[in-house]
Every structure is written in C-alpha cells, then in structure tokens.
Amino acid sequence: MKGTKLKKHIPTHIVLSLSAVIMMYPLAFAVLGALISMDDFYHTTFIPWPKEDGFSFVNFSYVFAAGWFFKPLLITLLRFAWSTLFLFITSMLGGYVFSIIRFKGQAAAFAIIMSSMMLPGVALMMPQYIMMAKFPLVGGNNILGQGGSGFIDNPAIFFVTGLFSSYNIFLVRQAFLSIGAEYKEAAEIDGANFFQTVFFIYTPMVKPILAVIILNQFIGIWNDYLFPLMFMGGNSEWQPIGLSIVNLINAYLKPNGVMGRSDYPAVFGISLTMMTPPILVFVLCQKYFISGLTMGGVKG
Amino acid sequence: MNKMQRQTLQGWCVAAPIILYFAVLSLIPLCMVFYYCFTDWNGFSDTWNMVGFDNFVLILTDKYYIRPLINTFIMAIFIILLSMGFGLLAAILMTREIKGVGFYRTIFYIPVVLSTAVIAQMANVWLSPIDGTLNEIIEVFGGERINWTRSTGWMMAFIIIICVWKGLGMTIVLYIAGINGIPKDYYEAASLDGANAVQSFFFITLPQLKNMTTFVLITSIIGAFNIFEPVQLISGGGPDGTTKVLLYQIYDEAFNNFNMGISNALSVVTLFIVGVLSFINLRRKPD
Description:
The structure holds two protein chains of two kinds.
Chain A: H1 2-8, H2 10-34, H3 38-41, H4 70-97, H5 106-115, H6 121-133, H7 157-160, H8 166-179, H9 182-189, H10 194-202, H11 207-223, H12 226-232, H13 241-253, H14 264-284, H15 286-299
Chain B: H1 3-36, H2 54-61, H3 63-94, H4 101-109, H5 116-127, H6 133-140, H7 152-180, H8 184-192, H9 197-208, H10 210-224, H11 229-235, H12 246-255, H13 260-282
Helix pairs in contact in B: 2-3, 3-7, 3-10, 3-12, 4-7, 5-11, 7-11, 10-13, 12-13
C-alpha cells in the first residue's frame, strides 16, 4: 500500500524538483561564479567552473570596501530599529483602541486610517518628494519652505517616514478581536493602566503577528532601493545598503582594466553578500512569512 | 470621568496622532499631486504656469507617453498569465500530501525576499551584449550574438521573466492556502459520483479558488505598476524608451527630463488605476 502511494507521487516529485532546480539555477550560478577568478569566468556558459586559478573567496571581500558596506549597514539597521519601534507602538495601540475599547468617533477614525491602504504609494511618490523638498524649517528651508533642500539628501528623511502601517494596525486589530475584551476587564480590576493592559496583557498574546510585522519590515528596509534613490541619491554619505550595494556593483559592471572586461565574479560576490541576511532570516523564520502572507490573502 | 469618556480620551489620544501623521505624509501629497499635475513646473525654478489639462492631453495622446502605460499592461498580462499558470500548477502538486512540501516551498519563496535591484544587477551579467553569459551560450551553439539591449522584445521578455521568477513563490503560497481551504468532502462526493481528476479540478478547485484568484490577479496588476528596478538598471527604458513602464516614466520625467508637471499628471493616472483596483480588492467578499 505504502509502496504504491510512493510510486504514484514520483511524477509529482520529478516536476517539482525540476522546477526547484530552475528556480535555484540563477542563484547557484551566482555562487559558483563568485567563487572563481575573473579570467576563469571569461567565456563561461552554463556552469562557472575554475580552469586555472581554482576556487577562492576573494570576490566576497570587495563588498567590504571602505564606505560601501559598514556605514550603509549601520544606517540600514538604525532605520530598521527606529521604524520598527514606531510600527510596534502604533500597531499595538491602534489595534487595541479599534478592537478592545469602544469610543465616540471610533468608526470614523478607523475608516480614515484604513483608507490609506487604498492610496497607492507609487502615485504619491512624486508629490511626497516635492513636499519633503519644501518642508518648512528643515534642511535650510524658511517657514515658507524656500531656500534649502528640505528633507532631500537629508538623513532625517529615514526617521520621519514609514512610522505607521494601516495594514499592520488591521492585522493586530483582527487578532485582538478574536482575543476579546475579558482580559482588559480583568486587568482593570487588578489595577493595570491603559499602557500596561496593551503592552503587558494583550501584546504577548499576539507574538506571531508581531514577528510577521518585524520580519516584513526587515526585508522591506533591507531591500529598499527606489525610496533612498530618490531621497538620498545625491548624498553618498548616508545611503542605506539597498542603494549603496547597487551603486558599488555598477562600478564592477563597467568594463575596466587592461583587458577592458567587467569583473562579473565580483558582481556575484557582492550581490550574494547583500542577499544573505534576507535568505537567512527567511529560512529561519519562514512560518511567519507564510502566515503573514496568507493572513492578508485569505482574510483581507 | 465615566468609562465612556475615559475610553474616548484613550481612543483619540491614539487615533489622532496617527491620523495627523497620515494627513501630513499622504493627504497633503494627495492634494499636491492634483495641483502640480496642472502646472508646467520643471522641479527647481521658483515660478510656474498653470496649463490646465495640457499635461493630460499630452500623456494620453503622445506616443512617447502612452507607450509606458501600454508596456505596464503588457507586462502585467504576461506576468499574470505565467505566474498564475505555474503558480496554480505548483500549488496543486504541492497539496497532494507528498513529503518535502516545506522544502519546495522554501526554494520557490526565496526569490521573494531578495532585493529586486540586486537581482537586476546580476541579470546584467547574463545580458551584457559584449561578454554576457547568454551570448557566450549562443556562441557555443554556433549562433549569432544578439545585442539584447537594442531589442525591445528581448528586453521586455527579460523584465517579465525576472518579475515572474521573483514573484512566483508568493502566488504559490497563496494558492496553497486557497486549495487547503477547500473542504475535502467536496472531492470525496465528486469521486463518489464518478468525477475524474480533471473534472474535479474544473468543477471544484477552480470555482472554489475564485476569490483567491481575484486577489492574486489584482495584487499582480498593482505589482506591475511597481516595476522599476529591472527597467532602470537593465534596459534604462531603452532602446529609445520602448521598455519604459509607468513608474519609471514618472521618475524619468521628474529627475531626467525636468517635467515635474507631467510627472505629477502621470502620478494621477496611476492613482486612479491602482486606486480603483485596490478598492475592488478591499471590497472582495470573504470566502
């Protein structure tokens, strides 16, 4: 019985394995490509393989070139920590007041906050840029927003944007609704105040959703490219890793040196280093990524 | 202070700052886009003129501006067809009570968490017309080298392939959730009535996945309006601007062509298309 069942699934496994190989091929190619020398990579076809020089890890060292990695990494992590702190506070408080307590104007306030989900970020990118450039009293601007460059190429931009997410508030609210208000009443009898109830009673009960919020935020901030390109493109001192690494790769993609060739193994080495943290985070915490996605897809 | 007053105070102390922040970061730009789309501002001068609907007439009649809109839809259609087709197939195979589903899911989902910009940079190694890997492969088989960057069709195809490769894992995971949500007794009842696997698929699986398919469809179209990195880093919109997409055109008009007015008019077009789609998406009936 078991044998026939196993046999029945062999075609399924063959199809899925082949698809998995196709999906992983570009990354496997990059790993092998990063391990060989520039001369050996020349005329590579399907599989990069060393001809004369053998394997080496030297291509993974270029990413650590001065100014391109550690400072951008620090900026990225600071931005991640700061925005996650605010996302955490706004999601938990917002989720709580729109589910556990009742107050006058609640429906209207919730509708306004949820309406932001319908505003596409890409359509508001340009006017946001203009507003940030003309923001009064920032970056040399006067009270009318003239004379300076506002938040453009100003590191403060990373710490004033993206501080709440209506989607995250929505997720936490759904979770709190299913928990109910009984805990709040019990906490009140025990003398807990508002913040104690939210952060010490309710928050620990939605740890998986908290994980989803934090992990998605990490991937989003780590990979962010267009936002820093627009708002920090002219200031190479304060670029986060998603932008600085792409700029660094540009230097290696250009044909240079005596042979007039591009250093493709270096491109792969730099790219893979940049991709490693998201892959590790995903592989270690994948159940949260999957549940976060299906939460929006099934219930949304 | 009674309970209701206290809760109203608590509620608004939380809601008011969030609404205020939302108003500054989103509602002010929303008003601004509807102002600047009627101007001929270049992005840096102190003065500008109101030009009425000129920007909109231009972007809806001039070939140069319609092309990105059409490209966005062409890419959306191909990305949706490919990722839904392969995604549904993979999801069906992966819900067949086989071993190793978790492993396959991990593999398919890894591209989703990677930086699109860095993927685009790696694709450049494959697509370089001088010593790119694809041309080396063609040469081994005795073919003629192709200058990919001079071909609109090839560039569009590569951008589509990259987007499908990157987004497929998400479609698969959503469809797996959708298929697992279909009650098993539907299939049992169908097989008792003599339905075969193909009939079960067309008369049970597909109709039951309708809601999920709508969700995947709309998020994929919205996703197509977010394509930027592959266009900027691989094709640069070329050759001759024929692979531009709407978001890249918005960026290009503002920062390279200094037409802030047209850039904002394009933003308004995006706002309407994506806004309507998001609205439909949020109004979906739950399963």
